[in-house]
Amino acid sequence: MRAPRFSRLAFLATLGTFSVFSCSKDQESAAVQPVASHQQDAKVEQAYPGQTGESQAGYLGGQPIEYRSINGELIYEGDIILTADQVAKSTGTARPESAGRTSGRWPSAVVYYTIDAALPNQARVTDAIAHWQANTPIRFVKRTTQANYVTFRVGSGCSSNIGMVGGRQYINLASGCTTGNNIHEIGHALGLFHEQTRNDRDTYVNILTQNIQSGYESNFSKYSALGYGGTDYGMLDFGSIMMYGSFSFSSNGQPTITKKDGSTFNIQRTGLSAGDKTGIDAMY
Ligand SMILES: [Zn+2]
């Protein structure tokens, strides 16, 4: 169980990225002010940028969800690719346990992987793997004959399945996907959802639906698999690499997510926060 102070420490660790905002303000206020020039520092991940597809309703782990059908794929929260097995059309056919959080763990915390030879800038993969291995018990091993594994390949955006789905699964990386975005996508492959989808998130944030781009509203829906999923421990972690920023998917330059006091926060795609590490430790 993560003590609340972990979340605070994780947040403080990211202050360096905000420090150019204003030398005259103290760091706390600098960290919570909107900084237009910083909104592009890190981009939120999308499987198919600019495409919203069609809205679909279903159940994931027994919880009602809205997802998008784009190019024949089932896309949840922008960058999570669900399998047909994971999505049920009714509660009656829903799987009895959370896909991606319970049955979707990687046995012995080992992820087998390959890198498609056509993927440019493969340091995005090796650096992201090195970061996960330096900070968590997860180990990544080059696949030989294993049945279940991840292939990193070129994609139209940045996307991943949620958890181990069985057989070959992909992490898709467009040219704009950074090492930080890939650390985030690996988080999905390990079973992490977005931090703002926690069922208790309304305690910590306001969702400003009127500022969300049309067709992306479901990226802000709540989902929690009842007790599993490491990042549901402790407080909502604004410094999580799995957290959206205040301006993610904004239609008008106004925030889509604020803290309860109305202040904004930046997206963090540098590395795992203390809370992310604690969550993964709890899961694996
Ligand atoms: Zn994501």
UniProtKB/TrEMBL annotation:
Cofactors required: Zn(2+)
Signal peptide bounds: none
Cofactor note: Binds 1 zinc ion per subunit.
InterPro entries: Astacin-like_dom (IPR034035), MetalloPept_cat_dom_sf (IPR024079), Peptidase_M12A (IPR001506), Peptidase_Metallo (IPR006026)
Binding-site residues, Zn(2+): H184, H188, H194
Active site (UniProt): E185
Keywords for this protein: Hydrolase, Metal-binding, Metalloprotease, Protease, Zinc
Protein name, UniProt field: M12 family metallopeptidase
